[in-house]
Amino acid sequence: MTLSQQFWQLELKDYSPAHKLSLPVDRQRLSTDQRSGSASTTQLIFDDEICTSFLTYASSHHVTLFQLGLSVFYVFLFKLTHGESDLCIASINANRYRSELGNMIGMFISTLPYRFELDPHWSFDEVVRYVQEKCLSILEHSHYPLQHILSDFHLTQSNVSFLETMFDFITASKDVNYLSLNGVNLEQMSLNESYKMTKFDFSLTFEYSPASDDNQLSCSFVCSSDLFDETTLVTIGRRFQYVLEQLFSSKASTKCIDLYYTSISKVDLILLEEVEERQAIMFHRLESIINEAPASFAQCRIWYENQRDVDTDQSFLTMHNMPFFYRLYRGDILSIEQLRHALHLTVNKHPSLHTSLHFDIEKNLLMQRVLTQQDINNDTFTITESSYESEEQLSNIMHEEKYNPQLFNLAQGLVFRCHLVYYKQISSSHLLSDKDLLIFNFHHALFDFPSMKVFHHDLNQAYTTGQLLYDDNTNLRYLD
Q1: Cβ(350)–Cβ(475) below 8 Å
Q2: Strand-strand pairing, 382-388 and 416-423
Q3: I need a surface site. Which of 245, 370, 430, 464 has the fewest CB within 10 A?
């Protein structure tokens, strides 16, 4: 066994040749499907700052542009595949490993596997050093033909997935762009292709044109349209550009990565408008928000179980009541009138606490609807008062709050109730004391446990000050 044969056997040891990268394809290709060869494409042209930073980094770290571009591509694939760290792709090698091949005309290019096992905790600098070492070792054994590598593993090109992802870096030579024949100068022209073909599922090609005054650095994704729509590829291209901006740009609007210290797992693929959209959906009440929308999957399950449980024996109930039981510290008192006012302010502030669930027959959907003052004839919640004398009576009251589904009415938006339980008799002084019990009860279809912290905050503010500030970041909401 030759040294090169040993090298490639170690290089691909334990790697599954059938493993496909988890790329964000629009369609899957079955093994029986015929490849069309048609391509979806997108091109990126990098500004002068990124180009200069890219070239400066390569020069200062003594790496080739190919090695640096490949490092960026591996970090991008690591993020695009949601953390796959054992990555194997194909790349093209000039394969002129002997000096006498330098002046010969012929087809010497070889395709070789580039397998890199990344550590998610590495910084970008560490990735570049690792890629450089790998590239140099591969270069040393690049003369060993791909068909020999595959046959050593009893494989054929048709069943090796890493050959479907390709990387290349082209440096345009001035000698090629311009031709002079006995003083007659000719300039190379580019062909505007309206229809492209591809041999690969997913390929990235960098192009560096040092003779160009501007737009020296660009890249293009050319991918199989059997798998990718053009719009998907445009988004992938924008994510790749954002990765380069994080690594090589100093713009104030761009999240910059410390190339020496920061882990590559911190590199972000989420575009700025996607961040803003996510924040708007999750954390802000928009002015244009509608009052009615389809219920979430979890709400549909809860609503269905609630409908089923109305006439069901309590021993078989699915619990959706969320009671919270409180008793005052010894010597403390609580004003019931103040509490009523604070509860009204809190419930009115939060749409979740006055939202109804109803089944729309025409749409065949369960809908959730925020009730406005025009919709509500009575209070948006109930305050109940009762008394107890024995621990057994108190236990029965607490059990009823926990297990009785009829305490709420989802169709009317009655999803919150307050129960004041007095010791022996209802207070005539409108005060709660340490032997009394205070119960806040919510229906789980419109409330979850993290919401209780927000409820506490607002209730305390409303009880203490008699008013409640509206803050979009603390509005209750139900997230599925």
Answers
A1: yes
A2: parallel
A3: 464
Q: What angle do CA 46, 50, 52 make, to 5 degrees?
A: 115
Residue that the structure tokens 């500004």 belong to: 47
User: How much is the pLDDT for 480?
Assistant: 45
Name the pTM for this structure.
0.60
Question: Which class in CATH covers the domain with range 3-26+36-175+194-283?
Answer: alpha beta
* Angle at which helices 336-349 and 451-465 cross, to 10°: 130
**What does the pLDDT look like over 17-36, one tens digit per residue?**
888 899 999 998 776 667 88
b/e per residue, 437-472, with b = 16+ CB within 10 A?
Answer: bbbbbbbbbbbbeebeebbeebbebbbeeeebeeee
| pLDDT tens digit sequence for 412-430 | 999 999 999 999 888 888 8
Averaged pLDDT for residues 300-327 = 75
Domain boundaries, the chain: 3-26+36-175+194-283, 292-474
The superfamily in CATH containing domain 292-474 is Chloramphenicol acetyltransferase-like domain (3.30.559.10)
Lowest-pLDDT range, 84-88, 168-172, 263-267, 475-479?
Answer: 475-479
Burial environment of residue 7 by CB neighbours within 10 A (0 to 12, 13 to 18, 19 or more): middle
Amino acid symbol at 413: G
